[in-house]
């Protein structure tokens, strides 16, 4: 209902114009001022989706191999990004306290545009946020990041009654369960991975995001975080 209303008032062309305009402003603010360059070589000039994905994977390698650089966490970086943001990647991750995006990808202030929600499900609000991240802020890769032993997916598998609004999350996770129920192996792991793919499909159904993908400005990928090793592997 909300989506319809928004679409009436703001056509895709208008949105794209808004995006271009705001990206322009962001770049001018970020690059044109006499700012102290951050001392750590976290990717600065990422222009391609593949470069953005590689930067995420490299950061996770550093994290998992205990070689973190803690880049972009200085006070000068704080001052730099106070003037504007140009994150290179978005993460649609689980709210699980053990999977904090900036830490597991070894990134800092202004690097990641993060949406976290139990079960990493793509609700319309999350999709709207990610559309903003890519269209307006210029994010080049969106990673849907699920993880090992996800409590939300596990609860959906068990099919128990849940209080409050928790049920709305489980409802959003069910399609992944359906897709994975015939697969051999660990049921919970299969369901977590299938859920990641289902949420990616939801994101791809966004006209705003699919337009960016078509013009090679954006990539959407799935990642699965191993709670024991800290390693993210791509899911496809
Ligand atoms: Zn989880």
From TrEMBL:
The keyword Disulfide bond does not apply. It is an enzyme of class 4 (lyase). Its cofactor is Zn(2+). It catalyses: hydrogencarbonate + H(+) = CO2 + H2O. CDD domains: beta_CA_cladeC. SUPFAM superfamilies: beta-carbonic anhydrase, cab (SSF53056). Zn(2+) binds at residues 94, 96, 147, 150. Binds 1 zinc ion per subunit. Its EC number is 4.2.1.1. One of its GO terms (molecular function) is carbonate dehydratase activity. Keywords: Lyase, Metal-binding, Zinc. InterPro entries: Carbonic_anhydrase, Carbonic_anhydrase_sf. Pfam families: Pro_CA. Coiled coil: none annotated. Belongs to the beta-class carbonic anhydrase family. Catalyzes the reversible hydration of carbon dioxide to form bicarbonate. This is carbonic anhydrase.
């Amino acid at each position: 209902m909300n989506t319809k209303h928004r679409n009436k008032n703001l056509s895709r062309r208008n949105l794209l114009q808004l995006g271009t305009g705001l990206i322009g402003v962001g770049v001018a603010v970020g690059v044109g001022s006499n700012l102290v360059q951050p001392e750590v070589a976290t990717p600065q000039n990422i222009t391609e989706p593949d470069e953005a994905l590689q930067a995420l994977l490299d950061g996770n390698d550093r994290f998992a191999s205990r070689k973190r650089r803690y880049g972009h966490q200085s006070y000068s970086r704080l001052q730099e990004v106070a003037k504007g943001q140009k994150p290179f990647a978005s993460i649609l991750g689980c709210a699980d306290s053990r999977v904090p995006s900036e830490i597991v990808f070894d990134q800092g202030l202004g690097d990641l545009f993060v949406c976290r929600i139990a079960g990493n499900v793509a609700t319309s609000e999350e999709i709207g946020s990610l559309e903003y991240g890519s269209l307006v802020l210029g994010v080049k890769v969106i990673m849907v990041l699920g993880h090992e032993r996800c409590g939300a997916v596990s609860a959906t598998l068990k099919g128990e009654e849940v209080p409050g609004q928790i049920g709305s999350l489980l409802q959003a996770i069910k399609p992944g369960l359906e897709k994975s129920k015939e697969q051999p192996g660990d049921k919970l792991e299969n369901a977590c991975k299938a859920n990641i793919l289902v949420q990616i499909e939801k994101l791809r159904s966004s006209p705003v995001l699919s337009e960016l993908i078509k013009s090679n400005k954006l990539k959407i990928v799935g990642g699965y975080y191993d709670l024991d090793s800290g390693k993210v592997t791509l899911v496809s």
